[in-house]
Amino acid sequence: MDEKWSGDWVAERLGVELVGDGELRELLGLALRRNPKRAHLLVSNVLGKHVPQRPSVVHGAGHELGERVRDLLGETEARRAVVVGYAETATGLGHAVADGLGVAPYLHSTRRPVEGVAQAGGFEEAHSHATSHLLLPERPDLLSAPDRGAPLVLVDDEFSTGNTVLNTIRALHERYPRDRYVIVALVDMRSEADRGKLAVFAEEIGARVDLVTRARGTVRLPDGVLEKGVALVAAHEEHPPPAEPEPRKDRPVPVRVELGWPAGVPDGGRHGFTPVHRAALEAALPDMAARLADALDGVRRVLVLGFEELMYAPLRLGTALEDATTAEVRYSTTTRSPVLAVDDPGYAIRTRLVFPAHDDPADGPGERYAYNVAGAGFDAVVAVVDSAADTPALHAPGGLLDRLAAHTDRVLLAVVPSYVPSPSPVERQEAAMLSAPLRGPAFSSYAADEVGWLLQDLSDTTLEAPTEEREEAIQSGGAHYAESLPVEYQPTAQYQELFRGALDTSAARIARAVGTVTETVLAERGPRPVLASLARAGTPVGVLMRRWALHRHGIDLPHYAVSIVRGRGIDANALRWLAAHHDPADVVFVDGWTGKGAITRELAAAVAEFDGFDPEIAVLADPGGCVRTYGTREDFLIPSACLNSTVSGLVSRTVLRSDLVGPHDYHGAKYYRELAGTDVSGLFLDTIAARFDEVADAVDAEAKELLAADRAPTWEGWAAVERISEEYGIHDVNLVKPGVGETTRVLLRRVPWKILAKRGAGADLAHVRLLAEQRGVPVEEVDGLPYTCVGLIHPRYTRGATGASGTAVSAVAEAATEAPAVTGK
């Protein structure tokens, strides 16, 4: 008895007939769409979308069509051609056709708009559930056709009525007229009436239009088939048999595999893919496949599962995996196309997994599907997504990874970096003049992947000046604080012990704040924010946020450190580099804490001159009420504030001086390699990260509460600083440093006058009291203070305000020596 054809179920119930070439039924099955515009769906067995197939078969089908196109065009015209594939179904097929040509660039249409990339064309697909196609090439001239040359090769999985292709050619011909088009499809299913349209259209536009297909045929539809199909779908979904097998209870935990995707190679053809890109990818595929094979050791049957438009990258990983392992490898992808599932040998879609979209689609949330995966006997699934889709929703209960884990022994996740198009030629030239970020161990004691420093290395330059000299120059207007560095404070053994004790005591509280601010950022600025910490106080926080995202969600966030200088603004060259390598809208600025909010205001003013950047800043602690994205608004001891470079990767504060920083330079900083013996940067990070699991439940609750709350800045801290400045006769808010972190900086770097401490403040001020004692600075306990403490820099400073030892003296002739307690009025 012959094996059932996977279109029998539909054919028997709707009277649909598939007539054509001998291999037509081997290539196609039938299913029912959940779409009122068309009842039936031709399900390809070699496309790799709905039906898992050997990757080599899928790629080979497209490659063979591409070879035929090359033979049709000839070598010279093939080199001038551009290949365009259709989203989402034919993005991989079109890319394989371009591989067959071998010498042509490739572009596919997309339904994912990309901010900052100009649209070079678009068209509609009338019968589709998601109709709008965008063309977003990185190179504006990719689709141009000088002298009407450069043939355009259009690739779709099926050529059914021809309307989509005609719409495409009509739209593109108006902007980029050319003399020749080639239409490529696996199957040509047009009716006789539709075949005539193409010839008429070609004559109308004055161009040659050729057709290359693997098989030809037609679908014969009886009268009323659309209504019958809609009714059949409705009846079946009202009382359906199970569309997926019983899920397993002992679900495996998904494991991330780092591919080592080659730098600069796009994840697909959304913005263009050139022969140079192809050569780089081919060279890298064996190594990436080896990594997957190592992670799949012992697996017998594996599915490489792509993601919607991301079809080519997982397909090529699959073909390479076939060569790297003895396992049976199959390939298919998820889709946004809703199709009825019927577990019958005569039906093409046997099972359906349903999960929510996880790439923040432009048309809003919705269901997504993986067909013929459940119950197919795969003992491992490799889910391949781009980084834009590597979001919390992917990892959430009920998300794709969770749904896959219910039906296989092993789930691997491989993330391909989403390609970011280069900026304009002028911006590219400017960015090319900027150096790549500095990374450890050459610069800083942080690991290379923890942070990239958008700074220039001034380690061999003498920049330090005695604290008293710096203070006098700053207050007299003779110098800016960023033009020199204070001598690095070397903590005593007693102070180091105090730091370690404070770290142990506060680690859980800090971990909780790290988790809360990171979850808030992921929820509001996802799916893949780029962290830009304000060097240097923000950098340890940025590293911790990155670690939280990786630990809790498997999301590897890019992290850079940039310089901002009060009164001088942010490093413009650092922003230009970020804009050239990332979407500015994804950049989230990070700092350690807020004091009175001066840097918050400075940042807002600075980034206003640059398109696309969001001036909002995320901080670990916001005691001043200056921001809306924070981990806590408590003013407590963050141990990284206790020290200078030895808790910040051995990097100095940043320097901006005209004789050192030119128009195409980053701000500068020093790497104090000689302090490696006292470096506690790693200890600080590891101690806090070790508490992540402990605080996870509390973080989830706090983040949920914060996301629903009114977090508008109150600027309470700024008001308190202004009040203190007047009441203590200082009359300069820049000399009032509120909060534990800022007070510590005053004691370490400036000439302190006195410390105001909230009455009853305990362990959070132990290090402050010790430093104040060492420097002879009085600590006054006051009532009504909105901060745990406030540091006052010596007003109207001259070097006579300190004794020979550098400690503060008890009286200052030009400053008020008596001041009322802060009452909180």
From TrEMBL:
Domain (Orotate phosphoribosyltransferase-like) ranges: 27-217
Keywords of the record: Glycosyltransferase, Transferase
Database matches in CDD domains: PRTases_typeI (cd06223)
Gene Ontology molecular function terms on file: glycosyltransferase activity
Designated name of the protein: Phosphoribosyltransferase
Domain Cysteine protease StiP N-terminal: start-end pairs: 444-688
Annotated organism of origin: Streptomyces flavovirens
One Pfam family from the record: TRSP
